[in-house]
Design brief:
Strand order of the largest sheet: 2-3-7-6
Distance between the termini: 36 Å
Number of domains: 3
CATH architecture of the largest domain: Up-down Bundle
Structural class: alpha+beta
Strand content: 5-15%
Low-confidence stretches: 231-235
CATH superfamily of the largest domain: Butyryl-CoA Dehydrogenase, subunit A, domain 3
Number of strands: 7
Order of helices and strands: HHHHHHEEEEEEEHHHHHHH
CATH class of the largest domain: Mainly Alpha
Length: 393
Amino acid sequence: MIDFSLSENDQKILDYVRSEALVARKYARHYDENEHEFPPEALPEADQFPGVWGLMGERGEEDSGSSVIGMMVTMAETWGDYSVRMRKGRGVGLGNAALGAAGTPEQKEKWGHLLLSMAITEPGCGSDPSLVQTTAVLDEETDEWIINGEKIFVTTGCRADGVVLWATLDRSAGRAGIKSFLVEKETPGFVVAHKEKKLGIRADDTAAYVFQDCRIPRGNLLGGKEEIPKQGSGGFRGVMKTFNMTRPMTAAFGLGMSRAALDFTREQLEEAGVDLSYGAGVHGLSAAAAKFQELEALQEAAELTVARAAWMADHGMPNNLESSISKAKGGSGVRTITQGCIELLGAMGVSRDHLLEKWFRDVRITDIYEGTGQIQHMIIARTILDYSREQLS
């Protein structure tokens, strides 16, 4: 039986992370308005907080699985701020998730301590990564891969030490020809072209990359398998499995911020005398209270989809469908929730004196990267109806 009740130790961990997040929130506006600055590796208050890892190490069998508590910790962190943390962890980039899912033991040992971005999107390739045009050609004489192409909207692209790059060995092979490569910064032919300016998550750097005759060792092919499988078999499909945990994590990013928006809105409504107590029935509620409870229900439902996808991962169960459901539900839900909170609070909701308008801008990305909401609905429909890509696209 699935039970997402938090153990006493789980709750202790989340309370601790929220205490850190509340401190981090004090810096949120500064880095939002000064996006040329990167948040520090550790905030000045970090010495006052010993870190959550000791508490994580004390967890036992009665506690939630590592993936479930990981999602809850993520929500607790972004409840403070999306970009600012008490400490910036190394080895927690999107590329690190790919390394952990598909890398060889030797690659994990060599690259695991680095911060790795993941470069998929290109000027002509957005929501459909099977259209990747960046090429990787093997030079048999030097035993090196030669990379050529452009990547855009690379998360943590400026701060990262290296990148997991998606490129094709054979464009005519379509999805089956796509492989991932590990490329370190400062490699000749690898240029960080510029940093993007964005609507939200301004303190989280997003970059454009250019690769021009960039040579990397043959062993930098993620997973080490060079053969091009037939269409519909292992290569592309195996790479896509990376998203089965990063998509719920992306939803968790947004749900932490929408939870913060709900908490702030509740405080303001109660201060204004709005009765938000449960049990009166929909006809016994004011319009503001009814709207707020509707937003709370949406939050709870989205959080449960994330917890289920993580629970399945903890128990070794395939979670491709549940991963996409959590991403689709979370990505759309956080937009509705933060917008609804702004509507309830009126002028206060859009004032830069408060963080609500920032949370509204920041959550927008969670429905876009890691596969847009529309793509997730396509994946969900194909899976439930047992349709192929050709039958439903």
